[in-house]
């Protein structure tokens, strides 16, 4: 089945289009799900004319929709199988060899960084970390298909999105240590990255809040695209897990995105678990993709272990998102979370280790792409060993350098919270400064950039 056929389209129109009037003149329009009618039902009508359910035919047979009896689930799109064999030789993978090698390198780098940072947390050198094992192909593959100007909202397992868009190892490490070179000024916990330059909003711990933010940003981008036709149009992209789709934010965001027809791609990483809650306890329906159709959105389910399928689906979704002025698209990326939810989690308390080992052995995005590369003569064991040794050294070098940096200046606890420092903040600053002066041996202020002297100077300047 082709990608276009796999995308389920439920077309809607803008509210102003429903009346048939455009710029003061009547125009013919086709009947759609969102098209209003002002004419009541006639005695001989065969279809519903109520504004809340257009195009539904009348019937005297009572038949409930019973999803539990449905025999066929929404299909999952893929380009190559688990052995790295392309299924449609004529279509191919739609990815140049050099780009495929870059994608593989980034996935390997991400997996090495995850392993080393997980170990660093266990050694007490980091306070917290979250790995992307099993989901590298979703983040890196999809990010490779976006324009650098597209605005992205991540959850907390999209380190690969940052890496693919150019976030450096130094930037990763500076944020993890919250040191003086951290772009976030040390104000956030580890793995909550953000980059203004890369058009990626800062990650928030609060679950699902980025989904309505993305819908709102997409609405703004839609107006911007219309008002600035000389600039290449942009879209918003939102990543979240299937657990976040249980939050009310998800439903509100998809509904407003659909009714406002905004250019936004919603990417759900369905990895099987919301921390310790399996999908069997999260929902009864056919995954998250079934919800996209319910909100009138173009929807596709994709094999997240197939990076070529991820790339092609994302490229097509971006084209659709900009079609006819903009509309939302939902992609459900299927994967398996190989790692623990975070360093605060022991996943073997709620799932069998043999289950995890089976997924590692049977299928994951890195080994599948490697098989494809080897099949084309682009990769071998020597290259694998060389790149892993080199990337390991690069990660460790950045780690050790960031670990030695001082913490950000203490005044960052106060500045930037409000546009101007409040009187309450100034009182707290004076109290802290007084405590540091009276008990200098109790507090190690030298670990902060500028130490206590810089903080006292800041207080004096803002009295």
Automatic annotation (TrEMBL):
Keywords: Metal-binding, Mitochondrion, Oxidoreductase, Potassium, Thiamine pyrophosphate, Transit peptide. This is 2-oxoisovalerate dehydrogenase subunit alpha. It is found in: Mitochondrion matrix. GO terms for molecular function: branched-chain 2-oxo acid dehydrogenase activity; metal ion binding. Its main location: mitochondrion. It is an enzyme of class 1 (oxidoreductase). Belongs to the BCKDHA family. It comes from the Eukaryota. Pfam families: E1_dh (PF00676). It catalyses: N(6)-[(R)-lipoyl]-L-lysyl-[protein] + 3-methyl-2-oxobutanoate + H(+) = N(6)-[(R)-S(8)-2-methylpropanoyldihydrolipoyl]-L-lysyl-[protein] + CO2. It comes from Polyplosphaeria fusca. Its EC number is 1.2.4.4. CDD domains: TPP_E1_PDC_ADC_BCADC. Residues 104-409 form the Dehydrogenase E1 component domain. Coiled coil: none annotated. The branched-chain alpha-keto dehydrogenase complex catalyzes the overall conversion of alpha-keto acids to acyl-CoA and CO(2). It contains multiple copies of three enzymatic components: branched-chain alpha-keto acid decarboxylase (E1), lipoamide acyltransferase (E2) and lipoamide dehydrogenase (E3).
């Amino acid at each position: 089945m082709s990608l276009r056929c796999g995308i389920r389209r439920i077309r809607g129109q803008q509210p102003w289009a429903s009346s048939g009037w455009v710029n003061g003149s009547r125009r013919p329009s086709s009947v759609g799900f969102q098209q209003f009618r002002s004419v009541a039902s006639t005695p001989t009508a065969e279809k519903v004319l109520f504004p809340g359910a257009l195009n539904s035919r009348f019937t005297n047979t009572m038949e409930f929709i019973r999803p539990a009896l449905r025999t066929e689930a929404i299909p999952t799109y893929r380009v190559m199988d688990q052995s790295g064999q392309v299924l449609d030789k004529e279509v191919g993978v739609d990815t140049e060899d050099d780009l495929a090698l870059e994608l593989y390198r980034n996935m390997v780098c991400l997996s090495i960084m995850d392993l080393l940072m997980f170990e660093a947390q266990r050694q007490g050198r980091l306070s917290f970390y979250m790995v992307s094992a099993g989901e590298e192909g979703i983040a890196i593959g999809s990010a490779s298909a976006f324009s650098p100007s597209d605005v992205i909202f991540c959850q907390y397992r999209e380190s690969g999105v940052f890496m693919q868009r150019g976030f450096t190892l130094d930037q990763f490490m500076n944020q993890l240590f919250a040191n003086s070179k951290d772009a976030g000024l040390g104000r956030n916990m580890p793995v909550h990255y953000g980059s203004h330059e890369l058009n990626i909003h800062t990650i928030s711990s609060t679950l699902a809040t980025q989904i309505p933010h993305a819908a709102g940003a997409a609405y703004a981008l839609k107006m911007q695209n219309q008002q600035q036709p000389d600039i290449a149009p942009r879209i918003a992209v939102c990543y979240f897990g299937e657990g976040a789709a249980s939050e009310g934010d998800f439903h509100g965001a998809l509904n407003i995105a659909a009714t406002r027809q905004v250019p936004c791609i919603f990417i759900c990483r369905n990895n099987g678990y919301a921390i310790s809650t399996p999908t069997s306890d999260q929902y009864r329906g056919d995954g998250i993709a079934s919800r996209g159709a319910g909100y009138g959105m173009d929807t596709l389910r994709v094999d997240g272990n197939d990076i070529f399928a991820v790339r092609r689906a994302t490229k097509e979704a971006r084209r659709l998102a900009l079609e006819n002025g903009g509309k939302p698209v939902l992609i459900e990326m299927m994967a398996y979370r190989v790692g623990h939810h975070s360093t605060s989690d022991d996943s073997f308390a709620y799932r069998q280790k043999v289950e995890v080992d089976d997924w590692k052995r049977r299928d994951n995005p890195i080994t599948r792409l490697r098989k494809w590369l080897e099949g084309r003569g682009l990769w071998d064991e020597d290259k694998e060993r060389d790149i892993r040794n080199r990337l390991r050294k690069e990660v460790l070098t950045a780690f050790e350098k960031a670990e030695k940096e001082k913490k950000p200046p203490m005044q960052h606890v106060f500045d930037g919270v409000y546009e101007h420092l409040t009187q309450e903040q100034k009182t707290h600053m004076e109290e802290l400064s007084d405590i540091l002066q009276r008990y200098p041996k109790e507090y190690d202020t030298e670990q902060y950039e500028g130490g206590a002297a810089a903080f006292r100077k800041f207080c004096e300047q803002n009295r």
